[in-house]
Design brief:
By secondary structure, this protein is an alpha+beta fold. It is built from 4 helices and 7 strands, in the order αβββαβααβββ. The longest helix has 20 residues. The N terminus is likely disordered.
């Protein structure tokens, strides 16, 4: 049974760059081996975007909104972005079904641990689905999903891909 990674004591002034890297390490550990179910189960991956984007022109402490995704180069031209709550996004993987066996129940526990890590280490958490962003998909069924929050002046979280037809 996996336990949640140890949490550092929160700092009053907000995380420094070193603390942000520790948050990334914690998120990577929490999502290691997790697959998000859709028509093709894809891995859940942790990320850290410096100053809310990938370039030097990103603003310090950028908001977790569509502009932050665009600054990070995650919203291609013509893609459509939809915002969800954390609860709505993770509901399919944490709400137990009658048919679930031990493997599904353990996976749900790991997702609960991931949610707890996100909520403990990040503020202003939002979930975005970016549709039409795929790797040259014929019917635009590939959806990039980002769970994004702030850690000091940087943005961090987890991402995955969904396939819906």
């Amino acid at each position: 049974m996996n336990s949640m990674p140890e949490r550092p004591e929160p700092k009053e002034a907000g995380p420094t760059g070193k603390d942000s890297k520790n948050v990334l390490k914690i998120l990577k550990a929490a999502c290691k081996g997790l697959l998000f179910p859709s028509e093709s189960d894809k891995p859940v991956k942790a990320f850290l975007w410096n100053k809310g984007g990938k370039g030097d022109n990103a603003e310090e402490g950028a908001a977790t909104d569509e502009a932050a995704l665009k600054a990070a180069g995650k919203v291609p031209e013509g893609a459509q972005t939809t915002e969800l709550t954390v609860e709505k996004f993770f509901d399919p993987v944490i709400t137990e079904e009658e048919w679930w066996g031990e493997e599904e129940k353990e996976m749900a526990k790991r997702y609960h641990d991931l949610i707890a890590a996100l909520q403990h280490h990040l503020t202003d958490i939002k979930v975005f689905r970016v549709e039409g962003s795929g790797e040259d998909t014929y019917d635009n069924s590939l959806i990039d999903a980002y769970v994004v929050g702030r850690t000091g002046g940087e943005l961090a979280g987890v991402s995955t891909q969904l396939i819906e037809t």
